[in-house]
Amino acid sequence: MSRIDEVKNLMSELEVDLDKFYNKSNKAAGTRARKQLQDLKKLCQEIRLEIQDMKNQG
C-alpha cells in the first residue's frame, strides 16, 4: 500500500467516527477518532522523515 493510500484510508475511517461523534453524540466514536488522529500524526511524521531522507540523498 502506498503512503497516499494509507493516509486516505485513515482519513476515511476518521471521517466516519468524527461524524458519529459530532452529529450523533457517540462518545466511543470520539475515542476512536482521537486514536485515529494520533495514528495519522505518526504516519505524517514518518512520511516527513522519508521525504527529508530522499531529498538529502538526491
Question: Describe it for me?
Answer:
This protein has 58 residues and is an all-alpha fold. The chain has one domain. It has two helices and no strands. Helix 1 packs antiparallel against helix 2. It starts with a helix and ends with a helix.
* Mean pLDDT figure: 96
Strand count: 0
Radius of gyration computed on alpha carbons: 14 Å
Main pleated-sheet profile:
none
Name the shape in a single word. elongated
**Count of helical segments?**
2
Query: What would you call the quaternary organization?
Result: single chain
Order of SSEs: HH
Beta fraction of the residues?
under 5%
User: How many separate structural domains?
Assistant: 1
Structural class of the helix and strand makeup?
mainly alpha
Fraction of residues in helix: over 70%
Low-pLDDT parts are: none
Distance between the termini: 24 Å
List the SSEs and their pairings:
Elements: H1 3-24, H2 27-57
Helix pairs in contact: 1-2
Features:
58 residues, mainly alpha, 91% helix, 0% strand, elongated
Task: Briefly summarize what is shown.
The protein is mainly alpha-helical and 58 residues long. 91% of the residues lie in helices and 0% in strands.
